[in-house]
Amino acid sequence: MTTRMRAVSQRGYGGPDVLEVVETDVPVPGPGEVLVRVRAVGVNPADWKIRSGAVRKFGAPPFTLGLDLCGVVEAVGERAAGRFRPGDEVYGCAFPPHGAYAEYAVAPAEALALAPAGIDPVSAAALPVAALSAWQSLVRVAGVGPGRRVLVHAAAGGIGHLAVQIAAARGAYVIGTAREVGHAFLRDLGADELVDYASADFAQAVRDVDVVLDPIGGDYGPRSLETLAPGGILVDVRGTGPDRSAVRERAQARGLRFVEFGFTPSGADLEGVAALVEDGGLRVAVDRVLPLEDAATAHALSETGHVRGKIVLTP
Questions:
Q1: Do 265 and 289 touch, CB atoms closer than 8 A?
Q2: d(CA 136, CA 272)
Q3: Which residues, 6 or more positions from 147, have their beta carbon under 8 angstroms from its beta carbon?
Q4: What is the pTM of this model?
Q5: Could you tell me the mean pLDDT of each successive run of 10 residues in the chain, 315 residues long?
Q6: Residue 256 DSSP class
Q7: Cβ neighbours of residue 115 under 8 Å, at least 6 residues apart?
Q8: What structural domains does the chain harbor?
Q9: Residues facing 114 on adjacent strands
């Protein structure tokens, strides 16, 4: 196996132009890690937030971004041999400084699962972060099931369009907010009701929902509380970040639940996602596929907030 590879790196924080393709050493898997030859990598809003310095949980540059990947196992480290072996096609999560914007990436074995059968690597790479965010928030946190009413904001986005399908597959009545141009797409995915946020106020149009999934934040949090039935839950899927004490206090005053949720890399949950994909209950929308060299373009597009589904890079 080669010892050198191409990767997208950055020497400092900044705009998309700080991203550059470099030649570097192929990383070596440590204990509990797997070396993956990357076939495709999904682009997430978290990527450009890390790139810009808005999120600094992975240390200072230089580093390689990329959380989502699909690829082939090349080698396994100590304590990882039981789950995977060379040649397995896997999907899951890698992390800076050795992220997935590269020809090879190391990933924790517990953050990987066998890729869903019957879909291509591009589609598989688009799933992990968004699917785990939707799956864990709806299934683990909110306990969505038959008869529940679920409101999904940014329903045509990366997390949103998967959340619509997961909630529908679990028997919920699904309401989505999205521009009118995306309504046919979302009805095809199982949405029962849609609100065009550009022409209507969802806080006035929607009532008596049990669960709100919010990947947007800002004033969407307080306004979403107006839509909840007694005992309902608002899940902000952006993880920890900006101060949300006001929406939390307002939720508590009304007897509602508010949760700041960040996904947990989980091979077990990825297996659940894969089973739903294989059963035909979940499909991922890929807005466009770009070569690794166009990572800066991918970031600029992602930052517009108007991507339908996911952008994927290929080495």
A1: no
A2: 10
A3: 171, 172, 173
A4: 0.93
A5: 93 97 95 96 95 92 97 91 90 95 97 96 97 96 96 95 97 97 96 94 95 92 94 89 82 92 94 95 95 97 89 97
A6: -
A7: 70, 89, 90, 91, 121, 124, 274
A8: 4-127+284-314 (3.90.180.10), 130-260 (3.40.50.720)
A9: 90
